[in-house]
Amino acid sequence: MHIQVVCDSASDLNHKTREELSIRSLPLKVITQEAEYEDGENITPKNVYDRMRAGEAPKTAQVSPQAFRDTFTSYAEKGQPFIYFAFSSELSGTYQTAKMIEQEVKEEYKDAQFDVIDTKAASLGYGLVVLRAAELAQKGATYKEILEIGRYHAHHMEHIFTVDDLEYLQRGGRVSKAAAFVGGLLNIKPLLHMENGQLIPLEKIRGSKKVLKRMIEVMDERGSNLKDQRIAISHGDDLERAEKLAEMIQKEFGTEQIHIDFVGATIGAHSGPGTIALFFLNDTYK
């Protein structure tokens, strides 16, 4: 029996990609002034960014315990092995909730074969981990192989990103109010990365034009076999800059596989319009 790969909407993988690889995705919640939506199901990233530009501050909520219970139980009842690769536990309570439900379901279904994995990743960095696992599953890889390679990719996934306005990260508690104020005042564009699943400031760069160039330099410093690996770029409704970064990467490294997509509604509600994020492996694994 093939292995089912499960993720949540913070992977920022679009419907087409998920359907092609039979990936099951559970939506996080986006809460606006008038309603609660399911990320990627009945609200688009563009809608969230337009609301934020108009001054609204959407909130988000994790996948519900019942959604996990229904999904995990449905697979356990059928004897379907699956692996749930989760959004970073440092950015959401989704992983902890899934672990709680995992214990409940395994107590009821003693023979159920599944694991809940904290990827410590977000957006398309998380998405790349899920993509690789799903491709292996389609090719008939064993449970152990998918688990091992998925964990490896999660551990070695680099996240390098910048935001257009630090105020959005400050609202969500990702940076201090003082840092957001100083950044906006001096036209400083922050370069951030992920360290053990947390958002960590890396550098402060004056002016947006220098940011993409510095992202390429950091990629060169940290990346491995950049020509042949698949990388990803996600953007907060700024496709032009994302494509510009992709062109720079192709010119510098000859990279052939570059996946570009929106920063999804859940993560975008915290990072804001104009976010540009780059994801690649600092080591390679076939």
From TrEMBL:
InterPro entries: DegV, DegV_C, DegV_domain_contain
Source superkingdom: Bacteria
Pfam families: DegV
GO terms for MF: lipid binding
Keyword annotations: Lipid-binding
Job of this protein: May bind long-chain fatty acids, such as palmitate, and may play a role in lipid transport or fatty acid metabolism.
Name of this chain's protein: EDD domain protein, DegV family
